[in-house]
Design goal:
Layout lengths: L29 H16 L9 E5 L3 H13 L3 E5 L2 H10 L4 E5 L7 H11 L7 E5 L5 H9 L3 E4 L4 H12 L2
Parallel strand pairs: 1-2, 1-3, 3-4, 4-5
């Protein structure tokens, strides 16, 4: 974690193995081999790492937001899974590895801050991959929460360009 709360999602990025050697010719089947290897590492360490593909989890109780983000991200070549609340998001994380997690702040059942605490407890290495979505930037509770965590965020309404930009930054970590 960084020593200061982020006001912009530009910060040190983790490089995944496939980006360590840009321009290198990869043999046929390297993606399946890399994904199998990453699943094995995740099982051994109990801390998931993202597969080489760009799997993205969208957690939002608003179906319209889920659909819009899914369409946008799928057009950009990402594989998108959606969840209606933090509980469903945590269940999805038990089934698959994700390169990016987009999570709404205000949701029923398990909200964004609750999801963050559970993610911190269960999978702390996934925290840098988390991007919060919020339309609630004025409530004291939200302001205090964002002051305590170092996560990227998008304020609703956001543009397709803003979504692509912040996701690209997270993917470059």
């Amino acid at each position: 974690m960084l020593s200061q709360p982020l006001t912009h999602p530009v910060y040190a990025m983790h490089r995944y193995p496939e980006s360590e050697f840009p321009g290198q010719v990869r043999p046929a089947g390297w993606e399946q081999h890399a994904e199998a290897h990453m699943f094995e590492i995740a099982r051994e360490s109990a801390v998931p790492s993202p597969p080489p593909g760009q799997a993205i989890l969208v957690i939002d109780d608003e179906v319209a937001v889920q659909r819009a983000l899914s369409r946008l991200l799928q057009r950009s070549g990402h594989d998108v899974t959606t969840a209606n609340n933090g509980h469903e998001g945590l269940a999805a994380l038990e089934e698959r590895l994700y390169a990016v997690i987009l999570c709404d702040v205000r949701m029923p059942d398990l909200d964004g801050p609750g999801f963050y605490r559970e993610l911190e407890r269960r999978h702390p290495r996934l925290l840098p991959r988390l991007i919060f979505l919020t339309g609630d930037t004025l409530s004291q509770e939200t302001v205090v929460f964002f002051a305590q965590v170092d996560t990227a965020r998008l304020e609703k309404p956001f543009s397709a360009q803003q979504v692509r930009h912040v996701i690209q930054q997270v993917l470059e970590r």
